[in-house]
What we know:
- It is a single chain.
- By secondary structure, the chain is an alpha+beta fold.
- Among the domains are: 2-44; 47-179, no CATH class; 457-479 and 506-665, no CATH class.
- It is elongated, with a radius of gyration of 39 Å.
Amino acid sequence: MIARYLSPDHGLTPRRALVLRWIARAVLTLMALVVAAWLVLFITKGRFLRPLFEKIATARVHRPVKVAGEFNLYFAPFNVAFRADGLSVANPAWAGPTDFIDARHIALRLRTWPLLIGQHKIATAELDGAQVSLQWDADHTHNTWTFAAPDAHPQPFEMPDIERGQITDTHIAYRDPKSQIAFAVDIHPLSAVNSHIDSVLGFSGTGSLRQKPVRFSGRVENTDQALRAGSSQVALHAEGAATTIDLSGEMPGISNITAGQYQLKVRGTNMADLLDFIGAVGVPTRHYHLVAEASRQPDGDWMFNDIKGVFGDSDLAGRLAVGTRNDRLHLDADMQTASLDLLDAAPFIGYDPARLDRMGTKGLVTQENGHPRILPDAPLRSAELRQFDADVRYRVGVIANRNFPVEKIAVTLHLDHGVMALKPVSAVVATGRMDGAFTLDARGRQVLADYQVRLHPTPMGKLLARFGVEEAGTSGTISGRLALRGVGNSLRDNLAHANGRMVAIIPAGTMWARNIQLAELDIGTFITKMFQKKLKQPVAINCGLVGFTVKDGVSFADPLLIDTKKNIITGNGDFSFRDESIDLHVKAKGKTFSLFSLQSPVGVGGYLAAPKLNVISPQLLERAGAAAALGLVATPVAALIAFIDPGDGKAAACGPVLAGATASAQRTSAGKPIKGLKPSGH
């Protein structure tokens, strides 16, 4: 037939017809050779190609490839059929003697036409009795699954497209020293749950994340459908470091598992353990449980939306994104708490959440060398803070504690290469406003911290109502400023080496303490039983200043001064962040003579966790009780207003007082220095 079309009758010259005949014969010969090769391969199953395969594969992957048993490589009929029993592919020398894969049996059917254009589409895959070792080197510059020259850039692990497959009796090990991740997984098929499930793939294993042991198990239902790039249900259960994680949802395919939408449930004793798993420093919490919707974004970030749950006795909601920025782990979060229990806030600054769970508020105080300590001593984990970056926004509706009228807290945190800035920090305190900024520089061997807090004019009636101050008779306000800078690897150590100034200013106003409550004070019960009296009139205040200059962790009174209608109250002494001891003395000079007072100072001693009044006389004891009712003894500042003594005190000039000036700047109304008023410790 071909010859007929090449005949001269069809208008071809003899020369051209001869050329076309040779081409036709060559094509036919080539086709015959292809058919013959196909037939030879099909009959022999390509067993004779094993040495050639080992040689080419070894050169291609730059490491030894061997087949110890049966070998097949042929067309069946159009797809490429491959079988290798006892197949082993070595790991690079740095990974040790373990092979990358050592399989008892592996069989593949590859789509021919995609293979010719460089695509790897696997129609069917069987893997049995395999040991797979996936490793990163210590510097994270090489991995075992990048089959290239030793100096090639490492590539991410990519699962080829598999339409249908079966895995049996297979063990997979993964190790990443830099990320401190290691796990071993056993894969084993399970029986079908019902007639609608083609097959179920189960897996279980153990390992460690950042030196914390974990164990896990799970299952993939409809695995045949999943391998055909169809949807499948997946479930995972993991436990480790007092944390339990359950993940379930639908994945679009076994080769695209990260594109699924999953329901995540997490519970544990401390939320910080959860972030430890990914190499981040988390905020410590009491026991917690959370649910969230988890998915991976196109940019590679894992997004956890609709987070809802509780920690301790507080609620938590919001979203969290975990990803990388400039090859560094980065967290971005927006979180909210409607009601924050004060005990749940304590771990944020270093108190032990497990101890608080066991002991409640008593867990805030520890004993050291026979003395109580209240400042937390948990390490600030400077090394870990340098390993990741973060941007976090946190909002709190209200503090659920009647002693602390605080609400509408807002904190913005930015962490960049070991420098953490909490700025701005704001809150509403007793209808007044507080704002501040905190910086922790963890780039050095010790953390350098800067604390800045400002309390804007706040009604004392609302602030101290819990301690017996009557709002209706109290018109005074209080303002404050704190500026400290310290070095140390815990809050306690940091403040023990701090320098700066702390000031509280009281402008003109009145304070009325009628409903005195003393139950919180050791001396209070004694005073109440002895005198059973109440203040009948408000105390009129011209101005007041409670100032402390902090030098190397010791806070010196500079000054302690309150000017009232009838008296000038002064104080000196100090309290220490080093051992938390208090040594303050307060004395009042009356502007008019009183027959009911004696001229004696009152001391405040003890420790920040357990302050004590050192009362000199019964008369002062009664007045000390009234002052204690103001609730000021619970701070490092002495209760001042009720210590009224006879004398010739002059009214203080309120200009330097209201400016928060130091003791040396204070003056009487006549412009003279106040006698006996000087900075403590000087």
